[in-house]
UniProtKB/TrEMBL annotation:
<dbReference type="GO" id="GO:0008776">
    <property type="term" value="F:acetate kinase activity"/>
</dbReference>
<keyword id="KW-0547">Nucleotide-binding</keyword>
<dbReference type="Pfam" id="PF00871">
    <property type="entry name" value="Acetate_kinase"/>
</dbReference>
<keyword id="KW-0479">Metal-binding</keyword>
<dbReference type="GO" id="GO:0006085">
    <property type="term" value="P:acetyl-CoA biosynthetic process"/>
</dbReference>
<keyword id="KW-0460">Magnesium</keyword>
<dbReference type="GO" id="GO:0000287">
    <property type="term" value="F:magnesium ion binding"/>
</dbReference>
<feature type="site" description="Transition state stabilizer">
    <location>
        <position position="246"/>
    </location>
</feature>
<keyword id="KW-0067">ATP-binding</keyword>
<feature type="binding site">
    <location>
        <position position="96"/>
    </location>
    <ligand>
        <name>substrate</name>
    </ligand>
</feature>
<feature type="binding site">
    <location>
        <begin position="335"/>
        <end position="339"/>
    </location>
    <ligand>
        <name>ATP</name>
    </ligand>
</feature>
<keyword id="KW-0808">Transferase</keyword>
<comment type="subunit">
    <text>Homodimer.</text>
</comment>
<dbReference type="GO" id="GO:0005524">
    <property type="term" value="F:ATP binding"/>
</dbReference>
<dbReference type="InterPro" id="IPR004372">
    <property type="entry name" value="Ac/propionate_kinase"/>
</dbReference>
<dbReference type="InterPro" id="IPR000890">
    <property type="entry name" value="Aliphatic_acid_kin_short-chain"/>
</dbReference>
<dbReference type="InterPro" id="IPR043129">
    <property type="entry name" value="ATPase_NBD"/>
</dbReference>
């Protein structure tokens, strides 16, 4: 086994979903992902565990009854295929939790009370928080000697002004049901807005930024002086941009219409808008690589899908330019933002009047390091900055765990 070169120790970052556990062993100082893997299909007939370390991959195909079995298998894989976790000197375990409600505005060290608070937020995140709680409980049991820290996707957006997070419905109804804009992908928006400021060499406090996190899920944020002032996702991650399988913004009356006239149940509509819409619904594919292949074959629905996607993105850029009174930096990140030059171009083309001028050559291709893609004369600096949510979680975990 290769020796680990992380003199200050490592952080095990865990992202436990309802039927999966993703993990990464991170060097929080150097930023390297030393090992990573995923347990999939927990609770199904056959589960899959994939573990990557030092350029090789180990795979198990066997039933994984629950999160406890899953995490035990992961620890076995570390023991068998490396790296040796004793030698890795884990200083903290960092857990990603999607919904922290209005309770958590930053990362916290896990206690029994914190677990109960996350459990109490299950009604707000029924797809996510139950898996997080299961993962937290098992990880604390199996790794009892290190501090566990939870980092919330919503925390960065707890600074939104009331006008930005309030929906125009009667306040009594909103309060009784905890309905407000929470925002998601906060770890990425925070990490990328800080990295963008560092990259352009200006104080975070001075910058008005728009961050475009375009992964399978996608969201935009407006960040003033390092604090989020608006974001496109809302009560749930369904609102906002067109996504891989989510519709994003839609007239809420579509839901009543589908229920009353289309005879669809609420659960069917939930599935339709979350899992069968967005790019998948429009083009038959959710992955942009496949969508570009369709476009190359002359597929009209794929062409339209890309246009709908870019149109929505452009609308949000315009809205957040207005919210911020102009922007200094606009940054693309995540799978599509980092890799898809066509989407970047379509989203920001024709905005010269607003101070945004992309450089076609600088924009071309996949971008793996922070890079300016606007022209020198562009008033707004446009960047691509790769996100790294695991590293952001690892660093917050170390900071909090001391
Ligand atoms: P998430 O973390 O939300 O699952 P990612 O940020 O990893 O998503 O982004 C995944 C998406 O990135 C894929 O679904 C695909 O649409 C897009 N993507 C990845 N590589 C490329 C590429 N080379 N060109 C265009 N799009 C890409």
């Amino acid at each position: 086994m290769n020796p680990i070169t992380a003199p200050n120790g490592t952080v095990l970052v865990i992202n436990a979903g309802s039927s999966s556990i993703k993990y990464q062993l991170v060097d929080p100082v150097g930023g390297e992902a030393i090992a990573s893997g995923i347990v999939e299909r927990i609770g199904q007939d056959v589960g899959i565990v994939t573990h990557k370390y030092a350029g090789s991959e180990a795979r198990l195909d066997q039933p994984v009854a629950d999160h406890s079995v899953g995490l035990r298998l992961v620890l076995d894989l570390f023991a068998k295929h490396g790296p040796d976790l004793d030698a890795a000197h884990i200083v903290a375990v960092g857990h990603r939790v999607v919904q922290g409600g209005a309770v958590f505005s930053g990362p916290v060290v896990v206690t029994d009370e914190v677990v109960e608070q996350i459990r109490a937020l299950v009604p707000l995140a029924p797809l996510h928080n139950p898996g997080h709680v299961a993962g937290l409980e098992v990880a604390r049991e199996l790794l009892p000697d290190v501090p566990h820290v939870v980092v919330f996707d919503t925390a960065f957006f707890q600074t939104l002004p009331k006008a930005a997070y309030t929906y125009a419905i009667p306040p009594a109804v909103a309060e009784a049901n905890q309905i407000r804009r929470y925002g998601f992908h906060g770890t990425s928006h925070e990490f990328v807005s800080k990295a963008a400021a560092e990259f352009v060499g200006r104080p975070l406090e001075d910058l008005r930024q728009i961050v475009l996190h375009l992964g399978n899920g996608a969201s935009v944020s407006a960040v003033r002086g390092g604090r989020a002032v608006d974001t496109s996702m809302g009560l749930t991650p369904l609102e906002g941009l067109v996504m891989g399988t989510r519709s994003g913004d839609i007239d809420p009356a579509v839901i009543f219409h589908l229920h009353r006239e289309g005879k669809m149940s609420i659960d069917e509509i939930d599935t339709l808008l979350n899992k069968q819409s967005g790019m998948l619904g429009l083009t038959g594919e959710s992955d942009f690589r496949a969508i570009h292949d369709l476009v190359a074959e002359g597929d009209a629905s794929a062409v339209l899908g890309l246009e709908v996607y870019a149109h929505r993105l452009k609308k949000y850029v315009g809205a957040y330019l207005a919210v911020l009174g102009g922007a200094d930096v606009i940054t693309f990140t995540a799978g599509i933002g980092e890799n898809d030059d066509v989407v970047r171009w379509q989203a920001l083309a024709g905005l010269e009047e607003l101070g945004i001028e992309l450089d076609a050559d600088l924009n071309a291709g996949r971008i793996k390091q922070p890079k300016v893609i606007s022209t020198p004369s562009s008033r707004v600096t446009v960047l691509v900055v790769p996100t790294n949510e695991e590293l952001a979680i690892a660093r917050q975990a170390v900071e909090l765990a001391g």
